[in-house]
Amino acid sequence: MKELLRKIPPIHEALETGGFNRFIEINDLSFNQGKELVKESVTSIRKYILEGTWEGPPPDTQGFLDAVFMHAEKIKKQKYSISLHRVINASGTVLHTNLGRARIGAETIEHISSVAGSYNNLEYDIDEGKRGTRHTHAEKFICELTGAEAAMIVNNNAAAVFLILSALAKNKEVIVSRGELVEIGGSFRISSIMEESGAKLVEVGTTNKTHLKDYQGHIVEDTAMIMKVHQSNFVMKGFTSAVESEELAGLSKEYDHVLYYEDLGSGALFDFSQYGIGEEPLISDVIEKGADLVSFSGDKLLGGPQAGIIAGKKEAVDLLKKHQLARVLRVDKMTIAALEMTLLHYLKKEEDKIPAVFSITRPKEDIHQQSIKLVDQLKHRNVSFILELSEGISKVGGGTMPEVELDTYLVSVQHNRVPANEIHKRLRKQDPGVITRIHQDRIFIDLRTVTPEEHDEILEALVELNGQIENDLPFS
Ligand SMILES: *Cc1c(COP(=O)(O)O)cnc(C)c1O
Q: What is the pTM of this model?
């Protein structure tokens, strides 16, 4: 072993070879960058040799230096690889939580880039020429769209719930129906967040039924709030009843010290039900029914950036803006820019510019045409996949509208020598990765959320994969 290690050529010798010059040229590196990578490469090869796991040529052979440069290239790739990057969502789930929920629209992207790439008036009052507050941005649009008196933005809806409970109900009681003590994916539980905030949870009613009198019977001097939580990600069926927003708002108004707050989860600014899609409450309706406060996510049905939006009575929102936690939970200029432009699309009734709304309401026939095109293009390129077109279902996702089934078309891709999970894996490892659905030993491509540019990329990814399979190429 010692003998082998001694035969490793010194770094300065490796740097004088043509192999090194090619290595830095191909990888666009300076001499010093290349030198550092070669050093790292030799260090790790030394370790492999000691462990007995080095599978390359031994140090005293011709090919050893080439192996050192190849390993250095691998180190460079790993070192400079960006972790968060784009993928193509061909899964058919529009607000795919693992794939970043809502995609941001083109005009919004442009606006984010203009604000982020320049100085801006984030906390500067242009009219007065003095310090302003970031809380004013987007507020006007939210109020206009929801009918609320005031609004503010925090990091996400979980943060909104936490801020509202901490600021307005700490050491006081909050009444919630047992049927609404929900857990949202990724370990967000109403009961736990309530405990963290210092508010005391008062559960009323039963799992399936809660009546107005259940709430009435629990209002005491220490009650700060009646809270309603939208059952975003599940549906209760059968012998059930819950109390309507109006009634709860009315009840809270009988007491000066009791606020009525609804955690809407997603909520909607656009009436999807006019397309026969779901029954998500319109945020403006809930405000009109008398809620003192509502909160909802920016990146669920709204189709904007990750954010939590709080809207409601000015008096309550002002208390939230002044609370210490407002600073802890505040959002960045890029979030505000993205949210404002998305909201402006709603205000101008150009919802088709919001990709989430566009994809959810996209007509089935449109997806049909695109799917036929993809199959034709693939056949034209002589791929050896077995391709089939069938009707299927897309989902809204993001923990919203769990029951809604959006009619779609699916392209299934099979290969008689390669199992579906291998195709699935290879597609997601292409650049850009293509995320498909896998079901009963087939992969399915749902083009609902796929743009024309991405369509071409999927085509090329499949052609490339076909080539890899045909040539039995090892896959990295
Ligand atoms: C999704 C959801 C949340 C959490 O919202 P995020 O924006 O993901 O933090 C809270 N409450 C309800 C009811 C939800 O559906």
A: 0.90
